[in-house]
Amino acid sequence: MNKLSFFTALLVLVLLSGCSTRGTRTYTNLGETKTYSSDSRSHNSAINQKDYKHPTMRPYVIRGIKYYPTVVGVGDEFSGNASWYGPDFHGKLTSNGEKYNMYDMTAAHKTLPMNTIVKVTNKKNGLSTVVRINDRGPFIATRIIDLSNTAARKIDMLADGTAPVKIEILGFHSKHQKKVPLQEQLKESPQDQQTDGFALQIASFSKFEGALLTQKKYDDTDGYKTIIKDMQTHNGRMFKVWLKGFRSEEEARDYKSLGNFKNSFIVRED
Questions:
Q1: How many other CB atoms are found less than 10 A from the CB of residue 155?
Q2: Coil, helix or strand for 7?
Q3: What average pLDDT does the structure give for the chain?
Q4: Which of 165, 171, 185, 186 is nearest to 81 (CA)?
Q5: From 92, 197, 226, 258, which residue has the greatest number of CB atoms within 10 Å?
């Protein structure tokens, strides 16, 4: 064998060795896998103003196409094709600065706000998964969401690569957010003494946190107690703060006339 043939054979062996090494590469989970509830009550019902002003909400251009991130509401639904991405991006930074972890329950979307929680259902088999948006993409016109490897596995679409899906907005996630309590947990709120059933509604919130802060701030004001009423309205789930302890409607009207609570009004419990 001449020198040229020897070095050619050696180069081929090196290349084959390199391919074999890449083929057996292992990937480790970058942290504890986070999962998200399919119960919309477990998530914020509106995007945090800080998240709304985040740089990832600004319009951007990819391959000559301009995309306009926009806010959506709980219950909004969209249909299209889902794809998934994994090893080639594992450990690289996502659009919001996180490290992409293909084992986490996350996904990429072209326009949804970061930290939007969505339920993705595979229309072929009915399987569903819940993910948090933390990246931008997929930038292919026929696809609306790019799932992590684990999320794609949960709806059995890894082999096909894509699948027709329905996306439902469940809410928004923020760091250190408090879980909205279930109806029975609200019973821990301060209760009122026996009265004639009249109260003053002093505030109303779509987020439990706001209602809780108001309740604590005004509880025992002039001897009256505050409670939180969890109500389902045409605007969705609302947490209303009532000032209670009036012995009659007349007493409630007299107190309202003092003007201590702007836009308050008298209500009566069932």
A1: 22
A2: helix
A3: 81
A4: 165
A5: 226
